[in-house]
Structures are given as C-alpha cells and as structure tokens.
Amino acid sequence: MSNIPENLKYAESHEWVHDEGDGTVTVGISDHAQELLGDLVFVELPETGAKLKAGDESAVVESVKAASDVYSPVDGEVIETNELLADSPEAINEAPYDNWIFKLKLSNPVQLDELLDAAAYASLVKAEEH
Amino acid sequence: MPFVPHTEEELWQMLDVIGVDSIEQLFDEIPGELRCGELQGLGPGLWEQEISRLMQGKARQDGQPLCFIGAGAYDHHIPAAVWQLASRGEYYTAYTPYQAEASQGTLQLLYEYQSMMTELMDMDVSNASLYDGASALAEAVLMAVRANRKSRSRRILVPANLHPHYRATVQTLVKNQGIELVEIPYDRSTGQTDLQALVQHTGQDLAALVVPQPNFFGVLENVDALTEWARANAALSIAVVNPLAMAVLRPPGEWGKQGADICCGDGQPLGAPLSSGGPYFGFLCSKQTLVRQMPGRIIGRTVDLDGKEGFALTLQAREQHIRRSKATSNICTNQGLMVTAATIHMSLIGADGLIRIAGRCHSNLQLLVEKLTSLDEIEPLFSGPVFHETVLRLPLEPQRVLRTLAAHNILGGYNLAKHYPELGNALLVCATENHNQGDMDKYRLKMEQVLTSRRQGACATMAKFD
Amino acid sequence: MDELIPRTQTLIMLIFEHSKSGRRAQAQAPMADDGLSGIPDDLKRKRKPRLPEVSEMQAVRHYTRLSQKNFSIDTQFYPLGSCTMKYNPRACNTLAMLPGLINRHPLAPDSHSQGFLSTMYELQEILKEVTGMSAVSLAPMAGAQGEFAGIAMIRAYHDALGDTGRTEILVPDAAHGTNPATAVMCGYKAREIPSKADGDVDMDALEAALGPQTAGIMLTNPSTLGVFERRIKEIAGRVHEAGGLLYYDGANLNAILGRVRPGDMGFDVIHMNLHKTFSTPHGGGGPGAGPVGVSKRLQPFLPIPMVGTDGHDYHWLSEEQCPQSIGRLSAFAGNAGILLRAYVYAKMLGAEGMQRVADYSTLNANYMLKRLMDAGFTAAYPQRRATHEFIITLKNEARELGINAMDFAKRLLDYGIHAPTTYFPLLVPECFLIEPTETEAKESLDAFIDAMIKIREEARTDAKRVRGAPYTLPVRRLDDVRAARELDLRWQAEEEEERA
C-alpha cells in the first residue's frame, strides 16, 4: 500500500497539492504514481510564467517503459520549477512528497476544495489496484 | 511448395493435434461471404531460373547509360566489402533490436554509426536513421516546431533553391499539422539564398530556417550569415547537407557562432547504390538539448548485470510504441540495412578517403564544366562556388538535348524547366569520382554534335543516326 | 532502488579502437587528393572528422564479428509477433541487384526505364488483386508512412467534400502505437475503442463513439490480438453510415493472403508491409516498404509518383496527372529496391503460393497454440481460432513462480530462439504475441514448445536462475535505466582517452 500523507490534497490523475497558505501551491506526483512508472529517467518541467488551467498538461515524467503527463490540478501561473529534477529525476522515486515538480500561484483558490483528501484518494488508489 | 517446408505427413499430424480435419477448417471464423476465390491474373509461380530470366531481361532493357544526373542521388564507388558484409544474413534478416542481448551486433554498429555521423556533422547527437533525406527534413521541421519554445508560430522559412522534391515532401508530411512553409527566393546571379529577401522576415515570429549546403543548384551557401540570421531572429536553423561534402566543407556544427541546431540529409552518398531512388536513408543530428525532441530510434551504451559494456535502444519513451498519440513521430521501422552499409562504408574509406573522393568529385566537375563550356553558347548560369554539381545555360531546350544524348546512351543531366522555368534553358549536371576523362570527352563530343546539327537544322532527326 | 552497476574493465572494442592515426590501407578511394581549388577557404573544413583509420581486413573482421552477435532469421527461429519474420528468399536479393536495376538513376528518362517501370506497374497490379482494391501507390517507404498516406487521403477526401467537421479517428485499444501517432500527424484526435473479452471490437462502444466528428477508423484484421474480427462487415456498414472511412492496417495481411481481401471486407484504404507479407528483408530495422491501396473514391488522392501505361510504354504519373494527390512522400519513388524484391517474391509464389502463405502460417500458429495449451499454458483467447499469430498470457506463471514474460523471453534466447513479442498488445498482462510464419518447419515449432516447458520446469526448481537469463549471449540483461539517465550516445575521442 502506497504512502498517502494526510496533509495533502490529490487529483484523480495522481498529482499531490500542498497549500502553502499564501495563495500558492506546490505540486508533485503521488507515491502510487511513481510506483506505477518505475525508475524515472527524465522530468520535463513547465516554463516559469506559464498560465495553466486545471487539467492542462504541465510536465512529463518519463521512465524507461512509460512516459506520463503531469496535469495541473488547479488554475494558476507557474512561479517556480524544481530544477534539481533535471539532473536527478530519481529523487521522485526516492521521496515523492519531498521532491515537488512545480509551484503555482492560484488564480482560483476555491478549486482546492474540489480536490480529493487523503482518504478519498486512498480509496481511488485501492479501486485502481483491483 | 516454395518456402513452405511441411511434408504431407506433418500436415496431417499437425491438423490432428489441433483437432481439425483440414486447413480449411482453421478459417471457419471468417464469414463465408468474405472468402475470395482464386486470385486472378497472378499466374502460376515461377521457379528461380524463370524469374531470373525475366528480371535479367528487364534489367537489360534499362541498360547502363553514362550518367551525369545528380539532383539528390549520386553515383559513387561502393567498396566491394560493403554489400558483401551488409548482405550477411545476420544483418540482412534481423529486425529492430528489441531483444538487446540477441542484437548486440546491430546495436553496436548503430552506436558506431551515430558516432561517425556526429563526427562528420560536428553535432552532439544522431538518431539511428529515418527513411530518406526528404522525409528526414520533414521530421526536422516537426522537431523544430516542438523544440522552439520561443516561437508561437508554426512558420518555417524554406529556400526556393532547396531540392523541389524535398520541398514537396515536407509539404505533404507537415501540412496537416498547421505548419506553414514560407518560400525564400534565391539570388539569380549567384544561385544562393537571397539574403536581402530574408531580411524582410527580420523580427517575425518564426520556428526555423532551412539552410541547404550545397543547395539544389550545387551552389554553396553563405551558411554563417544564414545561421546567424536565424539565431538573431529566435528561429532554429535546420541544415540540409550532402554528407560526402561535409568531409571537406565546414559541417553544420561549425556554422555561425554556435552551429546549426538540427542537421539532416540523405545518406545515399555513403554506400547506397542509385537503385532508382531507394532504399537510401535519412540522417538526423542535433544539439544535445534537443535530444528528447528527436524522432526515431536512438542507441545508448550501458552495462549489463555483470557490469560489462553493451548497447541498447534508449529514450524509448519518445516513441510511438510507448507514447502512442503523443509520440515525436509515427516512425517505427527505419532504414537499418542502409545504415549498416554506410557504417561499413565510412570505416573502409575513412576521413582521408572521403576527402579524396570529395576532391575528385569537385575536380571532375570543374573538368566537365571546362569541356562543355568550351562549346559555343554553353556557360555556367550562377557565379556562386559549387561542389560537384552545377547549372549550365544551353542555347536550346534541355529536353531536346537530353533526348538526343539519351539516344546515344548518355544521360546528360537534370532539366530544370519544370521546377525553375524562370531560368530558361538550364541544365543541372553532376560529376563524381566515377567519371573519367573518356566519359567527359564522350559527353562533350555528343553535345557538340547536338549543337552543330541544330545549327544545320537537323536536330530533330539526329536520334536516328549513330 | 538499485544502485547503478559499476562499469567493469570488460570493454567492447569499437571500430574506433582499431583505428591508428596515419594508417593508410585503403584501395577504396582515389590515390591522389585533387584539392578544392574552386571553393573559398572560409567554407572549407579545418578539422578532419575522426572516422576510423583501419585496413580493409580490420573493417571486414570487425563487422563480420559484430554480425555474429545478432540473432536473425537465417540463424534462429524468430517468432516475433506482428513482424512476420519469414524466410527471405535469396533470389529476391540477387535479382534486385542486377546491374541495370541497381545502377538506374531515379531521374533517368523513360527511354532508359522501361524495365524498371514495367516491374513497378506489374507490382501495382499484383497488389491490387491480392487486396481487392481499385488502385495502388507504391510510394510509402514503410508501414508507418503507408499509414500516414492512408489517413492523409481520408482527410483529403473529407476536405474535398468540404466536410471539415470530422476531427476524430477511431482506434481500437489493442492497436499498434503507430496508429494513434499517425492520426495525430494528420491533424486528427485519436479516440480509443475498447475490445471485448473475446477480442472483437465492442460494437456498443463503437456505436457510441461514431458521429459527425468521425473521420474514420483504423483497424487491423486479424487484429493485434491474433483473432479475426468477425463483425467486420457490420463495422464497415456502421462507419460508412456515419460518414467515416475505414483504414486497414496491413500488418497482419500474411494471415489472409489469397484467402480474404481487405477490399471485400469494405475497407476504403489499406497499407501493406512488404517487409512482412512479401518477405523483403527486415535489415536490422528496415528498409521496409508500405504501399497503399484504395477504393474508387480515394483514388484521386493517392501519393505520387505512380506508374501508368498506354498499353505499350510505361511512364510516371506525377503532379500533372494526379492534381488531387496528397503529394510526395520521398525525394524519389520510395524504396524501389525493396519493391523489386517484393515483385520477385510475388512472381515466385503465384496465385497458389499466396494462398499457401495464409494456410500454412495459420496452421503453424494453431498448432503451436494447441500444443502450448495442452502443456498448461494460458491462451489469452482460448475460445478463438488463432490466425497467423496468437497470444498467451504468462500471468499465472508470474504469480505462482515469480517468473514474468520478460524472464521467459530472455531465457528463450539461451535456448537459441528469438523471443516472441512481449508486453504487446498492452491490454493482455504478461503476454507473448507469437507468430511462427509459414516458412518454419514443425521441428522449430516443437523446439519452441519444449523450451517453454523446460523454462517453466527450471522456474520451479531455480527461479533465480531464470530471472538472471540470458547467460549464453555476448551480454546479460542490460541496464536500461542507466542507458536513459546517463546518456552515452556516441564515442568521443577525448573521453575514451581519459578512460584509458
């Protein structure tokens, strides 16, 4: 069973969102997602300044056997990307919740309420495993 | 039964294991209405001697003319060892190296190919080949559109002196993706891309500029100015080059201050016979930063479980079998066997050999031009420097001249009338190391006869003599 | 996570490492350097490219030895599903290389091309007949380019009718990855249609997906699941009623050659993989050839060039004769040398030989399927006939023995058999797609089955050993993760010197 921290929100497409409380959020992919992908070999980061809508393709995580889009969980502008991942994509495999992918400035904060909480995400993962 | 090894007895044994009475029964899921009767018009199978006679007859029909046509396909000497090796069953009948452990021969060879091409082009990375030069340019254009994040437009500047068939192919392959090809005219006196015309696009949002070297007229471009212009205008530069010429001309990696971004072309001069236009192979190289935008197979060196070096397909997540509708291209099979030949070809000939071949091509062209322009009213059309191909102005329609020469078993060049009517009586001629003095003298003599008989008003009937 | 495996001292000799500066052993280039007197200095190359400097014998030895590290049809049974790895008759190669053909310039005039042009014309006619289509273009250089041409023609057809609202191409979920990639290259959205448990297309899902936005559907029949789509006529009817066209992916034409024709199934356009069905060489990954055939209504859009005849002489058909064509796909006329090989093969088979291709490839596949099932392996579609290929799933073995499809595949290599296609189609877990082809003798098929049984035995007693396979090849399993993370895509003189 994969690790699903309580303090985060989740998208159905397996991104996690951390509300920084100052109108910005941090986004990464869940433990379950990195497990499915296997050893990551590359992360394509979004451009800083890009304006994203919820559901937009924002980044790509790539393993030897798969490549998967990372969708923006909410509307917002990319204010920072995790440059560490350019050289060490495996950091996501090692610690998916420490190694975020990008930070967004929210343009529509109420969208956070529409995301899944840890319990709801856990049941989604469980359903997928069957 | 040709190529089917089963004996009658085995057939019955196998049907018995399956539990059916006949082969017919194995097709019982196919609705009867879909079954076709005997195929019409195919005739009975031929045995090897019969098909050999048939093909020998066809081959004889096409003869072995003395050929001065280039225009994208060049008659070079191919070392005997090249196709003896490339035709080995282990190369000829293997497939894409999906099982790396059972394909180390092909994989290592492709890694060596990538190494040779990046050396020849002075670029960082090469893929393991595309179909041909024209389709490789289309892939390069798509790659540039994906890679150029500074550009929102999907506009590509393409010079009019690029091979017309390349322009047509690119148009076919990219037009459905909303990519616009904008034509840049050439300078009528030099034959080079018209820099003045290019300047009109300064400041526009462009994805890339295509830079041929040499161009379709055989003329060498001012590659530094073109590459720098592209960079100044945030457009990527795509070089389209003849790989043999790159042994002696500055390669795309050295163009301008930072080199071209992408380079491509046709690998035919490296070991592929003319063979009516194919199979050849397309090559594609780029800067390291663009490697993930590259289409096609790429081979990497790695290690095995015991730490021993080996080779494998890598960066496969770009490709259609993983990325499906988001792949960099739909390409799957490439031109592996032609690359096998090219790699062996480059190994046998080496850099010095390629330099001497390129030098002989160049000096033979000079000689040919000298001989032909010694005739009245034949002169070079452009003033720009050339490699092994050039455009001559003739005093009469090239079509008539070529027909008469062909009747004497000389293919005198490529008529530019269809694609460049503005040039008048223009003929593109090519010489390679395969021509000798005697060949060129023969061409000159026949050309002289054509011109003389025209003056005597007898050109139309000349083909009947000889 | 696994640590990267350290590189040992067991270095592979690259051709560059046989090289010695200053070695001059070639007789393959002119002896003298004529220089470049007509070219300005600033255009000339200053630094020589570092290509190998080896003797002819060193090159021959190196590449002969490399070839020996390959599996190939000529040396091993190669039951790679969906790839039709059948024997490549040597006559095809020899006859395509006859001097008049191999030295023919692509732009040679018709006066020096009648032998070649007549061959291409006859091949067009042969392919029309075997597919039941009304016209054929030989222009596409590979299957994927044939797919591109096919979908581009569908688009040109709708565009010509002013029907621009059609934005979707339907693709079954089991389809080859080239299908959705092709749809996108033609400016379409690819929409997936699920398959049912018996392998056929889900008609309800198809019905729900069809609409005024449907440009067409891409189908392979037999499908990539190794079964014949029985309701094909009905599918064709439904798609046509919705205003869409049907595209046939010819990857599996070997299964029905001379038995069933795509044109009779209702398809509007098809591509053929001549390197599969018509036995031209796979060449370590090409060149292929992917001619396209079309029904009447798509005929004006076929890619150029094609070959026509006035009943006596043969000539090219190009822009002038085909103004509505989707255009050119290559600088010249496609992979002509491959087309010549396919022609020779077709002539050697004749009508009867073509049918035997379908018959015996189907016989071989059904025989293997039955024997594997009898030995306790699990068929993905046990209630269905195999076509020329079939799928087994090794999910039970994976669960019970801890040996997955990749482990079986790698161990088969130790038994001198090339592995079948693994993990494709994506929707069958732990799968093998097995295609024996008609040219394999019963002995090869039996050897494969014996090997599978033996590997399963080994797994029961020593699973670790199977998971470590292969042992008998030039390398063991390679580190793909390292290959992708630490990109080493070319030999670099400086780095090699550092390593040494």
Descriptive account of the structure:
Chain A contains four helices and nine strands; from the N terminus they run βββαβββββααβα. Chain A is of the alpha+beta class. In chain A, the strands form two sheets. Chain A has a six-stranded antiparallel β-sheet with strand order 1-2-3-9-8-5. A three-stranded antiparallel β-sheet of chain A has the order 4-6-7. The mean pLDDT of chain A is 93. Chain B is of the alpha/beta class and 466 residues long. Chain B has two domains: 66-75 and 350-464, Alpha-Beta Complex (Aspartate Aminotransferase, domain 1); 80-344, Aspartate Aminotransferase, domain 2, CATH 3.40.640.10. Chain B has a seven-stranded mixed β-sheet, with helices on both faces. A four-stranded antiparallel β-sheet of chain B has the order 11-12-15-14, covered by helices on one side. Chain B has a two-stranded parallel sheet with strand order 1-13. In chain B, a hairpin with a 5-residue loop joins strand 9 (298-303) and strand 10 (309-314). The longest helix of chain B has 38 residues, at 336-373. Chain B is globular and about 80 Å long. In chain C, helix 4 packs parallel to helix 11 (336-374), helix 5 packs across helix 6 and helix 11 (336-374) packs across helix 14. Chain C has two domains: 91-349, Type I PLP-dependent aspartate aminotransferase-like (Major domain) (Aspartate Aminotransferase, domain 2); 351-477, Aspartate Aminotransferase, domain 1 (Alpha-Beta Complex), CATH 3.90.1150.10. Chain C has 16 helices and 13 strands. Helices cover 37% and strands 10% of the residues of chain C. By secondary structure, chain C is α/β, with parallel strands linked by helices. At the A-C interface, helix 3 of A face helix 15 of C.
